[in-house]
Amino acid sequence: MKIAILSRNKRLYSTRRLIEAAEERGHEVAVLDALRCYMNITSLRPSIHYRGEDLSGFDAVIPRIGASVTFYGTAVLRQFEMTGVYPLNESVAISRSRDKLRSLQLLARKGIGLPVTGFAHSPDDVQDLIKMVGGAPLVIKLLEGTQGIGVVLAETQKAAESVIEAFMGLKANILVQEYIKEAGGADIRCFIIGDKVVAAMKRQAQAGEFRSNLHRGGSASLIKITPEERSTAVRAARVMGLNVAGVDLLRSNHGPVVMEVNSSPGLEGIETASGKDVAGLIISFIERNARPDRTRTRGKG
Q1: Is residue 238 part of a domain?
Q2: Burial class, 115, CB count within 10 angstroms (exposed 0-12 / middle 13-18 / buried 19+)
Q3: Statement to judge: residues 26 and 68 lie in one domain
Q4: How far apart are CA 126 and CA 128, in angstroms?
Q5: Which of 29, 61, 125, 186 has the fewest CB atoms within 10 Å, counting from its CB?
Q6: Per-residue pLDDT reduced to its tens digit, 207-236
Q7: What is the pTM of this model?
Q8: Contacts of 137 (CB under 8 A, 6+ apart)
Q9: Inside any domain, residue 295
């Protein structure tokens, strides 16, 4: 097969591993910077161009689209879908998962466990918003934040009010969530391929930090997940419409709750912790499923 990887840096661990895994299986791989792709949007013969060449003949595309380029990256992916190329994750599913508010609303509609979450626009509603999620301590998140950036733990009512009012004053959209103290600064990353959790790891925040992101100094270790956690992770990825996803769970007193569904999960942490060839499993999934015009949404939405 001829596989395109949408990635801005071919030296990144995840991109390198996908290239290696594909080439080991005899596939031809091209790494394309989504921001350098440009499109001819026309009826019947849509096309994509890159550095002066027409991109045609690809069987599958693996999107590794960074959060900061979601809008343009998903537009490029949608164009691939319109030309009949099989996407590992579809553009609509990626857009859905990147919108924190929309993704939580979709998960809640399907009855998937979540932290109690509040969303408001007016500063006049701050006190009731805080009360609604169970009071302080609570977590305040910027809707546009990634990798733990824009996430604040407010330990008192006054601190929560001050932070929320400050964000609102800057016209920033925020979520307010209950703080799951019993998680102890740890979360579980479940790596989903298809309808299976192929690997899982526990991410533990460093001392004095509540965010467990590996980018913020958190550590990763192998963990055995429960059947309920496995089912919750698989269902969350399915609700988003993602074939490959990293589902982040917290262990709460009322069962597993989903923090986030990541449409472009990194491979380094999960492969190191689990010892599994996750990149190879992704390529195997593509081999089993890549067919022309197999996109469910066919570039719509």
Answers
A1: yes
A2: buried
A3: yes
A4: 6
A5: 125
A6: 655 555 555 556 788 999 999 999 999 999
A7: 0.88
A8: 153, 154, 155, 156, 179, 181
A9: no
